[in-house]
UniProtKB/TrEMBL annotation:
Keywords: Oxidoreductase
GO molecular function, one term: oxidoreductase activity
Gene3D superfamilies tied to this protein: Clavaminate synthase-like (3.60.130.10)
Lineage: Eukaryota, Viridiplantae, Streptophyta, Embryophyta, Marchantiophyta
A Pfam family it matches: TauD
Protein name, entry field: TauD/TfdA-like domain-containing protein
Domain TauD/TfdA-like residues, every copy: 28-329
Biological source species: Marchantia polymorpha subsp. ruderalis
Record SUPFAM superfamilies: Clavaminate synthase-like
InterPro entries named among the record's database cross-references: AlphaKG_dependent_hydroxylases (IPR050411), TauD-like_sf (IPR042098), TauD/TfdA-like (IPR003819)
Oxidoreductase is among the record's keywords: yes
Length: 436
């Protein structure tokens, strides 16, 4: 095995996932000494592929025992990976930029528990990876638990298959409320102007439209704005690992605990999450999801100088209540745009379930699936799906995955004629399990 500045070490709290890989994979100095930031940066640039190989299998890599002291050092480490920054626009957590690409992780009151979630699961494009850095380690509580997201899908398939099928077929709608003024004592704290970095209603509506996806706003006179996202898929296909992940904000939005403040009661009255057809989620099944997450999670004690890289497609994170000083910083990146969720616009009605402009994906009662291409299309534009025959049992979110996969295949082949078409993709029909 090649010599590396850091090596794999065991840590209390790790859990085997994905065929036996530890979550998280811990890398620490091979000779036990403290590694300087300059040494760490040089090593990252040299051995980045080795780190990413661990990330592929474990979903999270914790770098420990290096002399990363502050936000400036952390920014230098993040930049060493060479990933594109994912600006924090449209996220829900109250965050403040510290330096460069570095933000506070969350400014909610320390005692507040934040449920498991994938970072920015509700906008049309989420960060593919995220970094956390421990500048000040808490002595009591304040852990950042991790969760292998496929484990939730697997357990729901075993214990609540009907509920999982409903999530897959209907997707989810999120209703998120933001007031007109910043409130320092509030859980949400940020107004819609601060959160979206806009000055007026027209600017907000224009910004959401440019973000893509299925989002809209409702203005609440005398209160603020309700931003509605969806229907959005509740599951996502992890292409790198060939498995479904529980990519949504369902549990987080259903069980977020607001402090007992009048302003936050107002927020809670407007916030909501529901099935994509507008029907309410069954509370018992959402509780089952919460229980499964608690049983499958991994948690570890932060140490000062820790830097953790998390694959946002494979792994969810949360935050435990903290009862001592704690300072965790964050940075969001896009390392692989094909792994980020894509913009989708679809209704909850079958068989006409997509609208867009790129091409047509035809699915009949046979296994023939093809796309009629349009010249100069690029991945990320909208597309239209049309069923030639009635397909009453097809899953909307599965069709999303199939269309996205075929669309990427089309983009790679770069057809020069508008009449070009792709051969049937029978392999895709097997892994997405379309039910004709």
């Amino acid at each position: 095995m090649a010599d590396h500045l850091l090596q794999e070490v065991e840590m209390h709290g790790q859990k085997p996932v994905n065929g036996g890989a530890p979550l998280p994979q811990v890398l620490a100095p091979a000779d036990g000494r403290e590694v300087t930031v300059d040494e760490l940066v040089d090593w990252i640039k040299r051995d980045k592929s080795w780190i990413e190989e661990h990330l592929l299998h474990s979903g999270a890599v914790l770098i420990r025992g290096c002399d990363v002291k502050d936000a400036k050092d952390f920014n230098t480490v993040v930049e060493a990976f060479g990933y594109e920054e994912r600006l924090y626009n449209g996220g829900l957590a109250p965050r403040t930029q510290v330096i460069g690409r570095i933000y506070t992780a969350n400014e909610a009151p320390p005692h507040v528990y934040i449920p498991f979630h994938h970072e920015m699961a509700q906008p049309p494009t989420a960060p593919s990876k995220l970094f956390f850095f421990c500048e000040l380690a808490p002595t009591k509580g304040g852990e950042t638990p991790l969760l292998w997201s496929n484990s939730v899908v697997r357990r729901l398939q075993q214990e609540c298959p009907d509920f999982l099928q409903q999530l897959d077929e209907k997707g989810l709608i999120y209703q998120l409320y933001f007031g007109g003024e910043d409130l320092s004592e509030s859980y949400i704290q940020r107004s819609w102007k601060t959160l979206y970095k806009v000055n007026d209603r027209e600017e907000l509506e224009d910004k959401l439209a440019k973000m893509g996806g299925d989002s809209r706003v409702e203005w609440i006179e005398g209160h603020g704005v309700k931003t509605i996202y969806g229907p959005l898929p509740a599951l996502k296909w992890d292409e790198q690992r060939q498995q479904n992940v529980f990519f949504n904000y369902m549990v987080m939005k259903y069980f977020t605990e607001y402090p007992v403040l009048e302003c936050d009661k107002e927020v809670a009255a407007f916030d909501n999450v529901m099935f994509g057809d507008g029907s309410p989620l069954p509370r018992e099944q959402v509780l089952d999801c919460q229980r499964i997450m608690a049983e499958e999670m991994v948690e570890f004690k932060w140490e000062r100088g820790d830097v953790i890289l998390i694959d946002n497609v494979a792994v969810q994170h949360s935050k435990n209540p903290c009862f001592s000083p704690r300072r965790i910083l964050a940075s969001l990146v896009v390392s692989d745009r094909s792994q980020a969720p894509f913009a989708t616009k679809y209704s909850t009605y079958l068989p006409q379930c997509f609208q867009g402009s790129v091409g047509e994906l035809y699915g009949t009662t046979t296994e023939s699936v093809k796309m009629t291409s349009t010249p100069n299309d690029t991945v990320g534009k909208e597309f239209k799906v049309k069923f030639v025959d009635q397909v009453p049992k097809v899953s909307l979110c599965n069709v999303l995955r199939l269309a996205d996969m075929v669309f990427r295949q089309e983009a790679k082949s770069a057809p020069s004629s508008s009449n070009a078409s792709l051969p049937p993709v029978s392999g895709a029909l097997q892994w997405i399990d379309l039910q004709f």
